[in-house]
């Protein structure tokens, strides 16, 4: 058994995750950095601390050979690289979303967000002519461009998982979703969401064998309400997404 396989199995045992594993994972976390205040993303959804994002057991959700697509803002670009590595992936290249108008910014006016592409194990791309940019229109707050799904499916293999999803992907491919605005198809120990689909299976009282129920601490910064009443709202992916007008 390879060292990476042993490490993956150990992680699954420690986190208690018992669901399927995915060869491609798309995530759009509710980053906290520079999102507080009158014009920040906090006015649209609850934010998640970097520690909580980093602690997500994404390594346990991913297949041994897998791709990760991680949304970051200009303010969280460095954090994105650190998070991808903490999740067991090697960052390869950012795919930049170019927006059709100027937005906010403390120094330069933001008109981009980035989809960080990372790999783990032996995971070559299926399409080698994808450029490092896409030009796509803005939609409602925090709604990432639907074009992302065509790009991901062209480059990366299924099965697919979208973390922090707000709606099911407009695709016929084998996507599963997790987030507080959808009926989530998987259960992540310590990160409960309000609603689950039948695919998620029955709730496990103590998935990690710790003697504690699967509720965990509050998911969002400054939110001490019931852990089940959490998660973020935003676009195409089930969590919040730092958006164009909140950076």
How would you describe this protein?
With 247 residues, this protein is an alpha/beta fold. It has 5 helices and 7 strands. It has helices at 3-15, 50-55, 58-61, 77-86, 147-155; strands at 22-27, 62-72, 90-98, 112-120, 133-135, 160-163, 175-178. A 7-stranded mixed beta sheet has the order 5-3-4-2-1-6-7. The radius of gyration is 17 Å and the shape is globular.
Layout of strands and helices, then pairs:
Blueprint: H1 3-15, E1 22-27, H2 50-55, H3 58-61, E2 62-72, H4 77-86, E3 90-98, E4 112-120, E5 133-135, H5 147-155, E6 160-163, E7 175-178
Parallel strand pairs: 1-2, 1-6, 3-5, 6-7
Antiparallel strand pairs: 2-4, 3-4
Task: Give the structure's gist in a few sentences.
The chain has 247 residues and is of the alpha/beta class. The chain has helices at residues 3-15, 50-55, 58-61, 77-86, 147-155, and strands spanning 22-27, 62-72, 90-98, 112-120, 133-135, 160-163, 175-178.
Could you name the key traits of this structure?
single chain; 247 residues; alpha/beta; seven-stranded mixed beta sheet; 5 helices; 7 strands; disordered N terminus; disordered C terminus
